[in-house]
Amino acid sequence: MTFSPYFCAPRRGPSGKFFYTVAVKFSKETYLYWYELMQLIRQFELAAEEKYKMEGKIRGFFHAYIGQEAIAAGCMTATKPGDLFITAYRDHGLAIAKGVSVNSCMAELYGKATGCAKGKGGSMHFFGKDVNFYGGHGIVGAQIGTGAGLAFAEQYRGTDNVVLCFFGDGAARQGMLHETFNLAMLWKLPVIFICENNNYAMGTSIERTSNVIDIYKLADAYEMPADTIDGMTPETVHEGISRAVTRAREKGGPTLLEIKTYRYKGHSISDPQKYRTKEEVDEYKGRDPLTQVVSTMLTGKMSSQEEIDAINLRVDAIVAESLTFAEESPWPDDSEVLKDVYVDANYPFIVD
Ligand SMILES: Cc1ncc(C[n+]2csc(CCOP(=O)(O)OP(=O)(O)O)c2C)c(N)n1
Ligand SMILES: [Mg+2]
């Protein structure tokens, strides 16, 4: 098994508590960290979905990450805080994992001034530069080029940071991917291209849009190392990401990882899901990452049900607090409307 050199470092969990992980195997602390993070992402989204559907407190786009949480968990233990993440609009889970505060994430969904994008971005545009989370991007595939750009900046500055650049199976069909792969390999950029293959781009399955079903094979044209990974357990994600991170940190350049995953919810909040069967969804729910991690901990006698219950209670409290925070936060001021749109505040098109 390959482990990141940072795997031993103390890591602050979502509740603020520190976890110390051990580099000989996946320790109890690692499993507890994974479980707490995945549970936090899931409960955050379930609570937000309720506020959206039942109370109309949240409006606009909303793409749930539920089912894909093991990817966020495995990526976190395989990287260090200085590494940069960038993703598409299905961004809640990765933002929370990276450390964007849960309060500011919920406030962003509510469109409040205290949101992580000042309430002006909503679900698709979470952002946390202070924790190296670079969004939250709505144009399918656009962040592939931006992710390579971030990696170029790290290489130029001579840091040992790597970029984890996430995109969907649909985005793998964009021309941007090919242009970026070419230059990323030519310049040996420290970037890991992570295709979260949940088998659907909106309502269209991979089989209906591509002759090449195995996305990792796209790397062959650029002689880029590539791998395919089971995305339903944090262990497999951690191992695959660790190998790619080590390569990138040692100046070996990019890797394409195709992580096979599944979203339990629709593409967005208003999706009748006519394109798939209940049996297919249930099959994946049978391999649910949270259930698997709990089972590993209990059967391996690494943890007790009491410890798991305590995590659940802590997560409930974090989510409840974020709802109160979002409800009580102010709306953005009208003067904010044109701010943060252009770099130059006097951009010529802006007139009173
Ligand atoms: C350039 C562009 N084309 C089309 C869309 C509309 N669109 C939004 S999400 C999406 C599907 C993308 O699917 P995938 O990349 O697999 O990501 P997933 O939603 O499964 O996470 C499409 C076509 C868009 N936002 N941008
Ligand atoms: Mg997809």
Task: Give every kind of bound small molecule, once each.
Answer: thiamine diphosphate, magnesium ion
Q: CATH class, please?
A: Alpha Beta
| Overall pLDDT confidence | 93
**The number of domains:** 1
Strands, total number: 9
What are the key terms here?
352 residues, Rossmann fold, five-stranded parallel beta sheet, two-stranded antiparallel sheet, 10 helices, disordered N terminus, binds thiamine diphosphate, binds magnesium ion
Q: Summarize this, please?
A:
Helices cover 39% and strands 10% of the residues. It contains 10 helices and 9 strands. The model is unreliable at 1-9 and 20-24 (pLDDT under 50).
